[in-house]
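Researcher: Let's walk through a ligand-bound prediction step by step. First, I give you the protein sequence. Second, the SMILES string for zinc ion. Third, you return the three-dimensional complex as structure tokens. Ready?
Model: Ready.
Researcher: Here are steps one and two:
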Amino acid sequence: MQPSLDMPPSRADRLPLIGCDLALDFTNTSSGRGHHSHLEHLRSAEHVVAWARHAKALAPADGDWILAALKADEALAARLLKRALALREIIYAIGVEVSARRRAPAEAVDQLAHVHAACIAKARLTPHGDGFVWSWAPQEAPIEAVLGPIALSALTLLTQADLSRIKQCQGDHCGWLFLDTTKNKSRRWCEMEVCGNRAKQKRHQSKLRRTLAAG
Ligand SMILES: [Zn+2]
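Model: Step three, the predicted complex:
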């Protein structure tokens, strides 16, 4: 996809990672879904790799290898972007429903299980510390090397996390998802400095308007 000329440059390599979870942070590569302020940060396969490196889902050397492979193979780049966006929207569809305390859509859950299984099929169990972790060799499976850790993180979240901690930012047209790790589950915003302050300002302005109208 050609980036639109009036669209600001992608911030895939420096987006705030506020989700407290890799899979939720991945959904936050798009802002303001369904609103005119919608901003897509994953507009190319290179953006996907840049984000994965930024989020430390991909080692820098593996990222370099994949970027070179993408340059040499347009079809691979197109496949990576398509599969990345599909995975992101699956996780988002589940996250939004769960954050609203509704049942996760069965179709999206099935799709996530399928993506995860496809990634694991290309993974290896490698020693890490006292145990083992799933890992992907980019030379053997470049797409899975990028998406595998994210799918695994989503699966782990759904099977092991306290789902009542998955929340959606209450900011206007924000839509970012996060795992609320506060002791009393009191977090409401993606970033207090962004959406929290905006909401505060809005409350202040409407109070001011009410005061003026009353006077
Ligand atoms: Zn927000």
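Researcher: And what stands out?
Model: The first strand starts at residue 30 and ends at 31. Helices lie at 22-27, 45-54, 60-72, 74-99, 106-120, 142-160, 192-214.
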